[in-house]
Protein backbone atom coordinates (compact mmCIF):
# COMPACT_ATOMS: atom_id res chain seq x y z
CA UNK A 1 0.00 0.00 0.00
CA UNK A 2 1.29 3.44 -0.88
CA UNK A 3 2.18 5.66 2.03
CA UNK A 4 0.11 8.82 2.49
CA UNK A 5 2.09 11.99 3.13
CA UNK A 6 0.97 13.61 6.38
CA UNK A 7 0.04 17.28 6.26
CA UNK A 8 0.93 19.38 9.32
CA UNK A 9 -1.89 21.63 10.55
CA UNK A 10 -1.48 24.63 12.82
CA UNK A 11 -4.30 24.12 15.31
CA UNK A 12 -3.75 27.60 16.76
CA UNK A 13 -4.83 29.25 13.53
CA UNK A 14 -7.29 32.03 14.39
CA UNK A 15 -10.40 32.18 12.26
CA UNK A 16 -11.81 35.45 10.94
CA UNK A 17 -13.89 37.53 13.42
CA UNK A 18 -17.23 36.57 11.88
CA UNK A 19 -16.33 32.87 12.20
CA UNK A 20 -15.90 32.85 16.02
CA UNK A 21 -19.10 30.96 16.73
CA UNK A 22 -18.34 28.49 14.01
CA UNK A 23 -15.01 27.64 15.60
CA UNK A 24 -16.60 27.06 18.99
CA UNK A 25 -19.24 24.77 17.52
CA UNK A 26 -16.88 22.79 15.32
CA UNK A 27 -13.59 22.92 17.17
CA UNK A 28 -12.61 19.36 16.48
CA UNK A 29 -9.77 17.58 14.82
CA UNK A 30 -11.71 15.44 12.43
CA UNK A 31 -9.79 14.11 9.43
CA UNK A 32 -11.89 16.26 7.13
CA UNK A 33 -10.97 19.47 8.94
CA UNK A 34 -7.30 18.49 9.12
CA UNK A 35 -7.25 17.76 5.41
CA UNK A 36 -8.83 21.09 4.46
CA UNK A 37 -6.67 23.19 6.82
CA UNK A 38 -3.63 21.36 5.53
CA UNK A 39 -4.62 22.23 2.00
CA UNK A 40 -4.99 25.90 2.94
CA UNK A 41 -1.63 25.95 4.69
CA UNK A 42 -0.09 24.20 1.70
CA UNK A 43 -1.54 26.80 -0.68
CA UNK A 44 -0.50 29.73 1.52
CA UNK A 45 3.09 28.62 2.06
CA UNK A 46 3.96 26.96 -1.21
CA UNK A 47 1.74 28.54 -3.85
CA UNK A 48 -0.91 26.45 -5.51
CA UNK A 49 0.84 26.39 -8.87
CA UNK A 50 4.48 26.06 -7.72
CA UNK A 51 6.23 23.70 -10.08
CA UNK A 52 7.54 21.44 -7.31
CA UNK A 53 4.08 20.64 -5.94
CA UNK A 54 1.90 21.06 -8.96
CA UNK A 55 2.35 17.45 -10.01
CA UNK A 56 1.17 16.26 -6.56
CA UNK A 57 -2.33 17.56 -7.22
CA UNK A 58 -2.78 14.78 -9.75
CA UNK A 59 -3.16 11.06 -9.09
CA UNK A 60 -4.29 9.96 -5.64
CA UNK A 61 -3.59 13.32 -4.01
CA UNK A 62 -5.69 15.18 -6.57
CA UNK A 63 -8.59 12.80 -6.07
CA UNK A 64 -8.45 13.21 -2.28
CA UNK A 65 -8.47 17.02 -2.52
CA UNK A 66 -11.42 16.95 -4.90
CA UNK A 67 -13.39 14.59 -2.65
CA UNK A 68 -12.67 16.74 0.43
CA UNK A 69 -13.87 19.95 -1.26
CA UNK A 70 -17.06 18.33 -2.56
CA UNK A 71 -17.79 16.73 0.81
CA UNK A 72 -17.24 19.85 2.91
CA UNK A 73 -18.91 22.41 0.64
CA UNK A 74 -21.87 20.65 -0.95
CA UNK A 75 -22.56 17.58 1.13
CA UNK A 76 -22.15 15.57 -2.08
CA UNK A 77 -21.31 12.46 -0.02
CA UNK A 78 -24.19 12.00 2.39
CA UNK A 79 -25.16 15.66 2.89
CA UNK A 80 -23.16 15.99 6.12
CA UNK A 81 -20.71 18.60 4.92
CA UNK A 82 -22.97 21.66 4.55
CA UNK A 83 -22.30 23.10 8.04
CA UNK A 84 -18.63 23.38 7.20
CA UNK A 85 -19.16 25.70 4.22
CA UNK A 86 -19.49 29.01 6.15
CA UNK A 87 -16.19 28.32 7.87
CA UNK A 88 -14.09 27.38 4.87
CA UNK A 89 -15.37 29.65 2.10
CA UNK A 90 -13.50 32.77 3.40
CA UNK A 91 -10.25 30.83 3.11
CA UNK A 92 -11.06 29.52 -0.33
CA UNK A 93 -11.45 33.16 -1.38
CA UNK A 94 -7.73 33.55 -0.76
CA UNK A 95 -6.89 31.29 -3.69
CA UNK A 96 -5.04 33.25 -6.39
CA UNK A 97 -7.23 34.76 -9.09
CA UNK A 98 -6.17 35.64 -12.59
CA UNK A 99 -5.98 39.43 -12.93
CA UNK A 100 -7.94 40.93 -15.77
CA UNK A 101 -5.78 43.04 -18.05
CA UNK A 102 -7.49 46.31 -18.85
CA UNK A 103 -7.43 47.53 -22.43
CA UNK A 104 -5.54 50.83 -22.84
CA UNK A 105 -7.66 53.92 -23.41
CA UNK A 106 -7.13 55.10 -26.98
CA UNK A 107 -7.86 58.70 -27.92
CA UNK A 108 -8.00 60.30 -31.36
CA UNK A 109 -7.19 63.81 -32.44
CA UNK A 110 -6.96 65.13 -35.98
CA UNK A 111 -5.73 68.25 -37.71
CA UNK A 112 -4.12 69.72 -40.79
CA UNK A 113 -0.81 70.31 -38.96
CA UNK A 114 0.28 72.67 -41.70
CA UNK A 115 3.25 74.84 -40.65
CA UNK A 116 3.62 72.67 -37.54
CA UNK A 117 4.21 74.76 -34.43
CA UNK A 118 4.36 74.36 -30.66
CA UNK A 119 0.60 75.01 -30.40
CA UNK A 120 -0.03 71.80 -32.35
CA UNK A 121 2.46 69.97 -30.15
CA UNK A 122 0.84 71.23 -26.95
CA UNK A 123 -2.61 70.17 -28.18
CA UNK A 124 -1.37 66.63 -28.80
CA UNK A 125 0.39 66.63 -25.44
CA UNK A 126 -2.90 67.47 -23.72
CA UNK A 127 -4.74 64.84 -25.76
CA UNK A 128 -2.25 62.15 -24.69
CA UNK A 129 -2.96 62.97 -21.03
CA UNK A 130 -6.61 61.97 -21.57
CA UNK A 131 -5.70 58.42 -22.58
CA UNK A 132 -2.99 55.80 -22.76
CA UNK A 133 -2.43 55.77 -26.52
CA UNK A 134 -2.77 58.72 -28.90
CA UNK A 135 -3.82 58.16 -32.50
CA UNK A 136 -3.52 61.23 -34.76
CA UNK A 137 -5.34 61.79 -38.03
CA UNK A 138 -3.62 64.00 -40.60
CA UNK A 139 -6.19 65.64 -42.87
CA UNK A 140 -5.69 65.10 -46.61
CA UNK A 141 -4.55 67.84 -49.00
CA UNK A 142 -7.91 67.76 -50.81
CA UNK A 143 -9.87 68.26 -47.59
CA UNK A 144 -7.64 71.18 -46.56
CA UNK A 145 -8.16 72.89 -49.92
CA UNK A 146 -11.92 72.44 -49.66
CA UNK A 147 -12.20 73.74 -46.09
CA UNK A 148 -9.30 76.14 -45.56
CA UNK A 149 -7.25 76.81 -48.65
CA UNK A 150 -4.02 75.42 -50.14
CA UNK A 151 -1.68 73.71 -47.64
CA UNK A 152 1.91 74.89 -47.41
CA UNK A 153 3.43 71.50 -46.56
CA UNK A 154 2.92 68.23 -48.42
CA UNK A 155 1.25 65.22 -46.84
CA UNK A 156 4.64 63.49 -46.53
CA UNK A 157 6.12 66.47 -44.68
CA UNK A 158 3.15 66.75 -42.34
CA UNK A 159 3.28 63.03 -41.57
CA UNK A 160 6.99 63.33 -40.73
CA UNK A 161 6.30 66.22 -38.36
CA UNK A 162 3.40 64.53 -36.56
CA UNK A 163 5.19 61.17 -36.29
CA UNK A 164 8.21 62.96 -34.84
CA UNK A 165 6.29 64.21 -31.79
CA UNK A 166 7.05 62.40 -28.53
CA UNK A 167 3.38 62.02 -27.54
CA UNK A 168 2.10 60.40 -30.75
CA UNK A 169 1.68 56.60 -30.85
CA UNK A 170 -0.01 56.09 -34.23
CA UNK A 171 -0.82 58.19 -37.30
CA UNK A 172 -3.72 57.89 -39.76
CA UNK A 173 -2.91 59.63 -43.08
CA UNK A 174 -5.53 61.30 -45.29
CA UNK A 175 -8.11 61.66 -42.52
CA UNK A 176 -11.35 63.54 -43.34
CA UNK A 177 -11.84 67.10 -42.10
CA UNK A 178 -15.32 66.27 -40.79
CA UNK A 179 -16.03 63.46 -38.33
CA UNK A 180 -18.73 61.74 -40.38
CA UNK A 181 -20.77 58.82 -39.06
CA UNK A 182 -18.89 56.41 -41.33
CA UNK A 183 -15.45 57.61 -40.26
CA UNK A 184 -16.51 57.72 -36.60
CA UNK A 185 -17.56 54.07 -36.77
CA UNK A 186 -14.22 53.26 -38.40
CA UNK A 187 -12.42 54.94 -35.50
CA UNK A 188 -14.47 53.03 -32.93
CA UNK A 189 -14.41 49.61 -34.58
CA UNK A 190 -11.15 49.45 -36.54
CA UNK A 191 -8.88 51.63 -34.42
CA UNK A 192 -10.58 50.94 -31.04
CA UNK A 193 -10.86 54.65 -30.28
CA UNK A 194 -12.58 55.54 -27.00
CA UNK A 195 -12.69 59.33 -27.28
CA UNK A 196 -12.31 61.99 -29.95
CA UNK A 197 -10.41 65.11 -28.83
CA UNK A 198 -10.42 68.73 -30.04
CA UNK A 199 -9.58 72.17 -28.68
CA UNK A 200 -12.01 74.67 -27.19
CA UNK A 201 -11.87 76.77 -30.37
CA UNK A 202 -14.73 76.00 -32.81
CA UNK A 203 -14.03 73.89 -35.90
CA UNK A 204 -16.67 74.80 -38.47
CA UNK A 205 -17.44 73.34 -41.87
CA UNK A 206 -18.09 75.62 -44.89
CA UNK A 207 -21.83 75.45 -44.13
CA UNK A 208 -21.24 76.68 -40.60
CA UNK A 209 -21.92 73.37 -38.81
CA UNK A 210 -19.70 71.81 -36.14
CA UNK A 211 -17.23 69.27 -37.56
CA UNK A 212 -17.40 67.29 -34.28
CA UNK A 213 -21.18 67.36 -33.76
CA UNK A 214 -21.62 63.59 -34.12
CA UNK A 215 -18.85 62.76 -31.64
CA UNK A 216 -20.45 65.09 -29.11
CA UNK A 217 -23.89 63.56 -29.73
CA UNK A 218 -22.75 60.02 -28.88
CA UNK A 219 -20.85 61.17 -25.78
CA UNK A 220 -17.40 60.23 -27.08
CA UNK A 221 -15.97 63.76 -27.29
CA UNK A 222 -13.49 65.47 -24.96
CA UNK A 223 -12.19 69.01 -25.09
CA UNK A 224 -8.74 70.45 -24.42
CA UNK A 225 -7.49 73.99 -24.00
CA UNK A 226 -6.23 75.88 -27.03
CA UNK A 227 -2.62 77.08 -26.82
CA UNK A 228 -2.55 80.86 -26.83
CA UNK A 229 -0.36 83.13 -28.91
CA UNK A 230 0.16 81.10 -32.08
CA UNK A 231 -1.68 79.70 -35.08
CA UNK A 232 -0.83 78.71 -38.63
CA UNK A 233 -2.70 81.82 -39.80
CA UNK A 234 -0.51 83.98 -37.59
CA UNK A 235 2.67 82.34 -38.90
CA UNK A 236 1.63 82.88 -42.52
CA UNK A 237 1.18 86.55 -41.66
CA UNK A 238 4.66 86.72 -40.14
CA UNK A 239 6.18 85.09 -43.22
CA UNK A 240 4.43 87.45 -45.62
CA UNK A 241 5.64 90.42 -43.62
CA UNK A 242 9.21 89.14 -43.25
CA UNK A 243 9.93 88.06 -46.81
CA UNK A 244 7.80 89.99 -49.24
CA UNK A 245 9.71 92.60 -51.22
CA UNK A 246 7.42 93.88 -53.96
CA UNK A 247 4.27 95.16 -52.24
CA UNK A 248 5.77 96.38 -48.98
CA UNK A 249 8.69 98.66 -48.37
CA UNK A 250 9.75 96.67 -45.29
CA UNK A 251 12.91 94.84 -46.27
CA UNK A 252 14.88 92.07 -44.66
CA UNK A 253 17.39 94.54 -43.22
CA UNK A 254 14.78 96.80 -41.56
CA UNK A 255 12.68 94.31 -39.65
CA UNK A 256 12.70 96.27 -36.42
CA UNK A 257 9.09 97.22 -35.67
CA UNK A 258 9.79 100.85 -34.76
CA UNK A 259 11.83 101.47 -37.87
CA UNK A 260 9.11 99.91 -40.01
CA UNK A 261 6.42 102.14 -38.52
CA UNK A 262 8.50 105.29 -38.91
CA UNK A 263 9.33 104.58 -42.54
CA UNK A 264 5.81 103.72 -43.64
CA UNK A 265 3.66 105.53 -41.11
CA UNK A 266 0.45 103.94 -42.35
CA UNK A 267 -2.23 101.98 -40.55
CA UNK A 268 -1.71 99.02 -42.88
CA UNK A 269 1.96 98.83 -41.95
CA UNK A 270 1.13 98.98 -38.25
CA UNK A 271 -1.25 96.06 -38.70
CA UNK A 272 1.43 94.11 -40.53
CA UNK A 273 3.96 94.75 -37.78
CA UNK A 274 1.46 93.74 -35.10
CA UNK A 275 0.70 90.52 -36.94
CA UNK A 276 4.42 89.75 -37.10
CA UNK A 277 4.92 90.13 -33.36
CA UNK A 278 4.39 86.99 -31.33
CA UNK A 279 1.70 86.93 -28.66
CA UNK A 280 3.17 83.89 -26.95
CA UNK A 281 3.74 84.23 -23.21
CA UNK A 282 6.39 81.66 -22.24
CA UNK A 283 6.27 80.13 -18.77
CA UNK A 284 8.59 77.77 -16.93
CA UNK A 285 5.68 75.36 -16.48
CA UNK A 286 5.20 75.01 -20.23
CA UNK A 287 8.88 74.23 -20.73
CA UNK A 288 8.70 71.60 -17.97
CA UNK A 289 5.67 70.02 -19.66
CA UNK A 290 7.64 69.62 -22.87
CA UNK A 291 10.91 68.54 -21.26
CA UNK A 292 11.94 64.94 -20.62
CA UNK A 293 13.39 65.99 -17.28
CA UNK A 294 16.20 63.46 -17.48
CA UNK A 295 19.97 63.81 -17.48
CA UNK A 296 22.25 61.49 -19.44
CA UNK A 297 23.12 58.30 -17.61
CA UNK A 298 26.73 57.74 -16.48
CA UNK A 299 28.90 56.80 -19.44
CA UNK A 300 26.26 57.86 -22.00
CA UNK A 301 27.46 59.07 -25.37
CA UNK A 302 26.20 62.67 -25.61
CA UNK A 303 25.73 64.03 -29.14
CA UNK A 304 25.42 67.79 -29.70
CA UNK A 305 23.83 69.60 -32.65
CA UNK A 306 22.87 73.27 -32.89
CA UNK A 307 20.93 75.59 -35.15
CA UNK A 308 18.10 78.11 -35.45
CA UNK A 309 15.31 75.56 -35.99
CA UNK A 310 13.08 78.33 -37.31
CA UNK A 311 9.71 77.29 -38.78
CA UNK A 312 10.32 73.77 -37.46
CA UNK A 313 9.93 71.51 -40.49
CA UNK A 314 10.41 67.91 -41.69
CA UNK A 315 14.08 68.57 -42.49
CA UNK A 316 14.68 69.40 -38.82
CA UNK A 317 12.97 66.20 -37.67
CA UNK A 318 15.07 64.03 -39.97
CA UNK A 319 18.42 65.60 -39.10
CA UNK A 320 17.62 65.28 -35.38
CA UNK A 321 16.77 61.63 -35.86
CA UNK A 322 20.06 61.04 -37.68
CA UNK A 323 21.98 62.78 -34.90
CA UNK A 324 20.22 60.80 -32.17
CA UNK A 325 21.22 57.52 -33.80
CA UNK A 326 24.90 58.39 -33.25
CA UNK A 327 24.69 58.29 -29.47
CA UNK A 328 22.65 57.71 -26.33
CA UNK A 329 21.61 61.28 -25.51
CA UNK A 330 20.88 64.14 -27.92
CA UNK A 331 21.63 67.66 -26.71
CA UNK A 332 20.37 70.44 -29.00
CA UNK A 333 21.54 74.05 -28.96
CA UNK A 334 18.97 76.64 -30.09
CA UNK A 335 20.53 80.00 -31.04
CA UNK A 336 18.96 83.22 -29.79
CA UNK A 337 17.16 85.73 -32.01
CA UNK A 338 19.98 88.27 -32.18
CA UNK A 339 22.60 85.71 -33.19
CA UNK A 340 20.37 84.61 -36.06
CA UNK A 341 19.69 88.17 -37.17
CA UNK A 342 23.41 88.95 -37.18
CA UNK A 343 24.03 86.13 -39.63
CA UNK A 344 20.89 86.16 -41.75
CA UNK A 345 20.14 89.86 -41.82
CA UNK A 346 16.61 89.45 -40.42
CA UNK A 347 15.01 88.13 -37.29
CA UNK A 348 13.74 84.56 -37.13
CA UNK A 349 10.04 84.11 -37.83
CA UNK A 350 9.57 82.26 -34.55
CA UNK A 351 11.24 83.69 -31.48
CA UNK A 352 13.59 81.80 -29.16
CA UNK A 353 11.07 80.29 -26.75
CA UNK A 354 8.74 79.22 -29.55
CA UNK A 355 11.60 77.48 -31.34
CA UNK A 356 12.74 75.87 -28.09
CA UNK A 357 9.34 74.27 -27.50
CA UNK A 358 9.19 72.94 -31.06
CA UNK A 359 12.59 71.26 -30.60
CA UNK A 360 11.71 69.88 -27.16
CA UNK A 361 8.53 68.32 -28.57
CA UNK A 362 10.58 66.17 -30.96
CA UNK A 363 10.84 62.55 -29.82
CA UNK A 364 14.55 62.35 -30.74
CA UNK A 365 15.61 65.24 -28.47
CA UNK A 366 16.64 64.69 -24.86
CA UNK A 367 17.69 68.20 -23.78
CA UNK A 368 17.95 71.74 -25.14
CA UNK A 369 20.34 74.62 -24.46
CA UNK A 370 18.17 77.74 -24.75
CA UNK A 371 20.15 80.53 -26.41
CA UNK A 372 23.18 78.36 -27.13
CA UNK A 373 26.46 80.13 -28.00
CA UNK A 374 27.32 80.34 -31.70
CA UNK A 375 30.78 78.86 -31.15
CA UNK A 376 31.19 75.49 -29.46
CA UNK A 377 33.88 76.01 -26.80
CA UNK A 378 36.04 73.53 -24.93
CA UNK A 379 34.41 74.57 -21.65
CA UNK A 380 30.96 73.85 -23.08
CA UNK A 381 32.10 70.41 -24.25
CA UNK A 382 33.44 69.63 -20.78
CA UNK A 383 30.39 71.02 -18.96
CA UNK A 384 27.93 68.84 -20.86
CA UNK A 385 30.33 65.90 -21.32
CA UNK A 386 29.82 66.02 -25.09
CA UNK A 387 31.25 63.05 -26.97
CA UNK A 388 30.39 64.14 -30.52
CA UNK A 389 29.44 67.41 -32.25
CA UNK A 390 27.54 67.05 -35.52
CA UNK A 391 26.29 69.37 -38.25
CA UNK A 392 24.17 68.75 -41.33
CA UNK A 393 25.04 69.36 -44.97
CA UNK A 394 22.02 71.66 -45.44
CA UNK A 395 22.61 74.90 -43.54
CA UNK A 396 21.30 78.46 -43.32
CA UNK A 397 23.21 81.56 -42.30
CA UNK A 398 26.93 82.20 -42.39
CA UNK A 399 29.83 82.63 -40.01
CA UNK A 400 30.75 86.20 -39.11
CA UNK A 401 34.25 87.16 -40.21
CA UNK A 402 34.95 83.66 -41.42
CA UNK A 403 35.06 82.26 -37.89
CA UNK A 404 34.43 78.52 -37.79
CA UNK A 405 32.03 77.81 -34.87
CA UNK A 406 33.17 74.18 -34.79
CA UNK A 407 36.94 74.83 -34.74
CA UNK A 408 37.38 73.45 -31.20
CA UNK A 409 35.51 70.15 -31.62
CA UNK A 410 37.32 69.66 -34.93
CA UNK A 411 40.68 70.12 -33.19
CA UNK A 412 39.60 67.58 -30.56
CA UNK A 413 38.60 65.06 -33.21
CA UNK A 414 34.96 64.90 -32.09
CA UNK A 415 33.26 66.68 -35.00
CA UNK A 416 31.28 64.94 -37.73
CA UNK A 417 29.30 66.22 -40.73
CA UNK A 418 26.18 64.16 -41.38
CA UNK A 419 24.13 64.14 -44.57
CA UNK A 420 20.86 66.03 -44.23
CA UNK A 421 18.09 63.55 -45.19
CA UNK A 422 15.86 66.29 -46.67
CA UNK A 423 16.91 69.44 -48.58
CA UNK A 424 14.25 71.56 -46.84
CA UNK A 425 15.13 74.92 -45.28
CA UNK A 426 13.19 77.65 -43.50
CA UNK A 427 13.60 79.90 -46.55
CA UNK A 428 12.37 77.20 -48.93
CA UNK A 429 9.20 76.76 -46.86
CA UNK A 430 8.64 80.51 -46.66
CA UNK A 431 9.20 80.85 -50.41
CA UNK A 432 6.23 78.56 -51.07
CA UNK A 433 4.02 81.14 -49.37
CA UNK A 434 5.68 84.14 -51.00
CA UNK A 435 5.28 82.62 -54.47
CA UNK A 436 1.56 82.10 -53.83
CA UNK A 437 0.99 85.07 -51.57
CA UNK A 438 -2.38 86.00 -53.10
CA UNK A 439 -3.82 82.57 -52.35
CA UNK A 440 -2.51 82.65 -48.81
CA UNK A 441 -3.77 86.19 -48.29
CA UNK A 442 -7.28 84.96 -49.08
CA UNK A 443 -6.79 81.96 -46.81
CA UNK A 444 -5.67 84.21 -43.97
CA UNK A 445 -8.60 86.59 -44.38
CA UNK A 446 -10.97 83.63 -44.24
CA UNK A 447 -9.34 82.22 -41.12
CA UNK A 448 -8.81 85.58 -39.44
CA UNK A 449 -12.57 86.18 -39.25
CA UNK A 450 -13.14 82.93 -37.33
CA UNK A 451 -10.16 83.57 -35.04
CA UNK A 452 -11.43 87.07 -34.28
CA UNK A 453 -14.79 85.58 -33.27
CA UNK A 454 -13.00 83.08 -31.03
CA UNK A 455 -11.04 85.75 -29.18
CA UNK A 456 -14.11 87.99 -28.88
CA UNK A 457 -16.14 85.21 -27.27
CA UNK A 458 -13.20 83.64 -25.45
CA UNK A 459 -13.71 82.36 -21.92
CA UNK A 460 -11.29 80.87 -19.44
CA UNK A 461 -10.88 77.10 -19.81
CA UNK A 462 -9.39 75.24 -16.86
CA UNK A 463 -6.88 72.47 -17.25
CA UNK A 464 -3.78 72.32 -19.44
Automatic annotation (TrEMBL):
Q: What is its EC number?
A: 2.7.7.14
Gene Ontology CC terms: cytoplasm
Q: In which pathway does it act?
A: Phospholipid metabolism; phosphatidylethanolamine biosynthesis; phosphatidylethanolamine from ethanolamine: step 2/3; Lipid metabolism
* Keywords tagged on the record: Lipid biosynthesis, Lipid metabolism, Membrane, Nucleotidyltransferase, Phospholipid biosynthesis, Phospholipid metabolism, Transferase, Transmembrane, Transmembrane helix
Which InterPro entries does this entry report, sorted A to Z? CCT, Cyt_trans-like, Ect1/PCYT2, Rossmann-like_a/b/a_fold
For whether the record's keyword set contains Secreted, the answer is no
| Family, similarity comment | Belongs to the cytidylyltransferase family.
In terms of PANTHER family, this protein maps to: ETHANOLAMINE-PHOSPHATE CYTIDYLYLTRANSFERASE
Name of the protein: ethanolamine-phosphate cytidylyltransferase
Source gene? LOC102721101
Amino acid sequence: MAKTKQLVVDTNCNPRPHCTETKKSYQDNTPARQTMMGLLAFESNQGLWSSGYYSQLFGIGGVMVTVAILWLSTGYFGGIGAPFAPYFWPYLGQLPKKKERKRPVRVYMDGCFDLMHYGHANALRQAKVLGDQLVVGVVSDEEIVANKGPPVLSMDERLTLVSGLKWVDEVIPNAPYEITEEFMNTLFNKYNIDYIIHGDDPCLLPDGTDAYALAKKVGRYKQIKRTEGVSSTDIVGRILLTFKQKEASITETTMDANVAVNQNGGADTCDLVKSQLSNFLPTSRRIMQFSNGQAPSPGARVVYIDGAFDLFHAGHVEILRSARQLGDFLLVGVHDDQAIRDRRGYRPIMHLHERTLSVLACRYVDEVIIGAPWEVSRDMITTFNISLVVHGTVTEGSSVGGIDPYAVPKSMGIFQTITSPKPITTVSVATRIIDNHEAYKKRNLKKKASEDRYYTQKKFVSGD
